[in-house]
Amino acid sequence: MAESTTILDTATFAFLDIETTGGSSTSYRITEIGVRFWRGGQAVGEWQTLINPQTRISPFIESLTGINNALVADAPVFAEVADEFRRQLGDAIFVAHNARFDYGFIKSEFRRLGQLFSARVLCTVKLSRKLYPEFRRHNMDALIARHGLSPVQRHRAMGDVDAMWQFFGHALADKGRDCVGQTIATLLQRPSIPSHLPPDILEEIPPRPGVYRFYGENDVLLYVGKSTNLLQRVAAHFSGDHNSSRGVRMSASLRRVEWTETAGELGALLLELKQIKGLQPLFNRRSRAAKRLLSIELVADRRGYLQARLARDIDPSRLGDYYGLFRSKRDGERALQGIAGKNDLCPRLLGLEAGEAGPCFQRSLGRCKGACNGEEDVVRYNLRMQIAFHNLRLATWPWAGAVGVVERSKDGERTDILVIYNWVHVATVHRQEDLDGLALAGAVHFDLDSYRLVVKALMGPADQRKPVIELPIRGLPDVLMP
Ligand SMILES: [Zn+2]
């Protein structure tokens, strides 16, 4: 059977690996690059160089890669090889194992030189996952073991390139050129990227939880969103999964995307709320945070019957004495009416009907049991009131001071400790040591949406509740109610 023409016949593939001084491209540097080029079924050259990272190589990295400070002392710095690297790559497809890592570092090095770098990127982890979905692990060691690849010098650039190269050869022999070619073509297809954004923007956004921000012309903030997978959510925006006219208008005016990673979902939710309220993005639903909150208090009248009344000045230190939080008087009264109707409580004692003495209007209809004119026993009535309002009761902050809520990312690479006091997210730190020096002073603003989130996270069902670390009390912030 004749094989069809695929990308394998038309493109050059640059199998590339780098070594670095650490894990993150913003703070660490490249120490070695190795590339081998593949075209039409054979090797068509290779290029490698050590690079002086202009920073110390730690003993840990040295023991992992064997690349030490002495080895790179006389090597060129990236600026000296940048042009040659660009020339070597040409328009080849950038192939790497866990390509986001290598590609991110190369882009960062170019960015330090004030240059943009972009290429079509093929990740061999993704290729392996697509070709061999029956296996769970697709890291280099797993591939070497699974495909019986011959030994290479791991964690040196050319060694890892060699392993990737062998895997590619095995996959071609095993699955055939058509299958591999089509799989690569599928992997290289990108959702349409809004025209004013860099075409490789999705190569940079991490598949992790966090908050993303869309900016338009003149750097106007258009939208703030959160997700447990930033990459997926932003890609979904681009591919028109949110295909409303607003979404289309927003995509057309997009100029820049920014994001902040978080370790988990609670951190992302709280940061999103904070940014929507603080930054007022154009396309988010109007924030209603500025509105004053009302609540309900139960207070005994002269005869000892509990009355409900709307409270305008909520004391944030005794939230447990209040029932419900409402953004308007109307919302509060509507809640009271619902409770009165459902529980046959006296509307006059709930402040819904005027009048001083004698039976209320509902009494004559049989919908009030007579607290107004003393016909219902006071103990019984007060008990019915407390049961009726129970579910609305707010939670008083149960700790003496602030607490830290620990969120860890699934891969264990990131830890966020969310510092929370009186249901308000005050700060985020990343290490337990940072909690010791943390000064909590000044004022924080109570926010209804955050309150709901934090109550659910800290007071919800035991199996969903987040563990907390109690922090020493040292200058607590004032909590301001809206
Ligand atoms: Zn009544």
The proportion of residues forming helix, as a percent range, comes to 25-40%
CATH homology superfamily name of the largest domain? Ribonuclease H-like superfamily/Ribonuclease H
* Major beta-sheet overview: 5 strands, mixed
Average of the residue pLDDT scores: 89
How much beta, percentage-wise? 15-25%
The appropriate CATH architecture of the largest domain is 2-Layer Sandwich
The beta-strand count equals 17
The radius of gyration is: 31 Å
The CATH class of the largest domain, by name, is Alpha Beta
Give the end-to-end Cα distance, rounded to a whole number of Å. 74 Å
Q: Could you say how many structural domains there are in total? A: 4
Protein structure class: alpha+beta
Unreliable stretches (pLDDT < 50, length at least 5) are none
SSE diagram, text form:
Elements: H1 7-10, E1 12-20, E2 30-39, E3 42-50, H2 59-65, H3 69-72, H4 78-89, E4 93-96, H5 99-112, E5 121-123, H6 124-131, H7 140-147, H8 157-175, H9 177-188, H10 201-204, E6 210-215, E7 221-227, H11 230-238, H12 245-253, E8 256-261, H13 265-279, E9 294-300, E10 306-311, E11 322-326, H14 329-343, H15 361-364, H16 378-389, E12 403-408, E13 415-421, E14 424-429, H17 432-436, E15 443-445, H18 448-459, E16 468-470, E17 478-480
Parallel strand pairs: 1-4, 4-5, 15-17
Antiparallel strand pairs: 1-2, 2-3, 6-7, 6-8, 9-10, 9-11, 12-13, 12-16, 13-14
The structure holds zinc ion (ZN).
